[in-house]
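User: My collaborator sent over this chain with a note saying "see what the structure looks like." That's all I know about it. Can you take a look?
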Amino acid sequence: MTISYNWLMQYLPAHPTPERLSHILTAIGLEVESMSSFSDSSAQGDWIYEIGLTPNRMDAMSHLGVARDVLAYLNFHDKKNDQLILPYPAAFKTPAGKQPIQIAIENKAGCRRYAGLLITGVTVQESPVWLQDRLKSIGLKPINNIVDITNFVLHETGQPLHAFDADAITGNKVIIRNAQSGETFITLDEKERKLSEEDLLIANENQAMCIAGVFGGFKSGVKNTTTSIFLESAVFDATSIRKTSFRHQLRTDAATRFEKGVDISNTVNVLKRAALLIQELGGGTISSDITDIYPEPAEKKSIALRFHYLKKISGKNYHPDHIKKILLSLGFEWIKESVDEIWVAPPFSKTDIHHPADIVEEIMRIDGLDQVEIPTSITMSPSSDTGSGAARLKEKISQYLAGAGFREILTNSIVNSEWYDEATLSTSVKMLNNLSADLNLMRPSMLESGLQCIAFNLNRKNQTLPLFEFGKTYHQDNGKGYREEEHLMLYATGKKEQGWQQAAQPLDYYFLKGIAERLLQQCGIAIPLTQQLNGHKLSYWAEKKCVLELYNAPAASKKIFDLKQEVAVADFHWANCVEAAQKIPVRMLELPRFPAVERDLSLVLSKNILYSQVAAAVDQCKLQKLQQVRLFDVFENEKLGNDKKSMALNFRFVDEEKTLTDSETDGMMQQIIGQLEKELQAQIRK
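Assistant: Without extra context I'll predict from the sequence alone. Here is the result:
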């Protein structure tokens, strides 16, 4: 939110320097994100603050709201009792009994309060310089005096207003109702919108004039020829406004305030403030009494705060007088107090105050979080370590991949539903209040968002792309709810330059297969695992749970992003990887004291035999001194036969008690050869 220093000072008896104001704003939880100068028509200029607001701070979405917090801070820390300078008129005269425009609320749940009056003889013209300066300082463009006044009062008080051309109110009647089935409406931006029966409207006897609390209508808006206006100040249901705003993609200043809740006690005061400004700057005459429809007046809620609870939550002992001074400065009503507790009622402007903890937060904000003393000792109970193992494993794998030349990416978990087929969409999680038509689905697969990132890089001539990402996919759980699945995705495409000594290495399926298997080993999952080839995917299984799927990205998925080259993909089912890794005990062994002996063996096998079958056959020999088996070459040639292939294996033997002799090594090799010939009908190439 944007705050003007000169504008804010109108409401404060004491004027802190711009630098001190920046410190105060940060101290009370309105963190200053930037501070810049602004040249207005005055000689002194202005200072502009961009402050960060948490979603619950509706009370600070105006200059008066911020001023109230600043004054509470100054009164408490500077030991003063100043009062806020309110802009609301003390005297307000209207023609007694004149109500030419009637108001009817059909949906009392959607419209909790509605006030309005008629102003005639208005001249729509350019605003005075001071008003234009106020709006320009916070980034708003001046339009005309009537619209500028409603915008000014909105950012002054936090209460949205709307001015109707009174001549557009046929039947002299304003009706607050819900839209009818199939009803359409042309908004101020001249777009026709199809309304929902849940949308609340401000209408005349014949047609809608405004989407309540969200956006005005093209036909009823103030024009240069307007001479009479009906000024509205209302309070609408927050949930209804939020849904309508998202439904029509109209995120207006008024909607953002109504959806967080506005001060229902201030509706008429703000109406009077705006009416007098229009009378002053537009030459108009207030021609009717104020009509204020308030079906069910809101009652202030009483909240009890025990002093020991305040001490427990804040970590500080507050004197009752200090508590009272802070809360009264913030507009709280003091109901009663006792030796160990107080009863207060929060102001209607603070719609987020519901529990004693909320009051503790208000006290600590004004006192200052840095005023809580740090204890000399801390008492704590030991906690069980439940999630650090998985976090350490993720960090270990991330570091390994970064060291191997991979770059981490972070893609959006909300994606475009047009990327997926109907079968996938039938079990996916759809967004109900998506902000964009292109982002309307919780991703059922991480492949597409990764390919989108790859396409973005390739289009910018970034050709070498080994990438990885930790993320989640989202699915419907057989109609019983929803579930999240965590994945580690690896992508590889392009060529990795090796320098002048070596040719570029293709980042292909086989490159990624080697990286993926080493990652499983980093997790402590022994290779080989059970492998299954399902179509174009090779899957690895540990204890009947899939831990990894390897494949080249399908052509249909690449076509979505206009990708022409191959993209190798490794999809780790991360929860299964963590579960398998945690079941494997960690063993520490000394480095062997005696040298290892290596032997190479070349086999001719049927083309259908996988390396995993070879490794399993070797494992059946149960040779304790066989430390490692490694496949280093696969060869196919017409001389071997169309249905044959050659595999070259390296065997590493180690005896921890002595140096192996050639006869011992040859004996173990003969056992391996015999087992391969028996199990796989292998032929030894000599």
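A starting point for your reply to your collaborator: The two ends are 79 Å apart (CA to CA).
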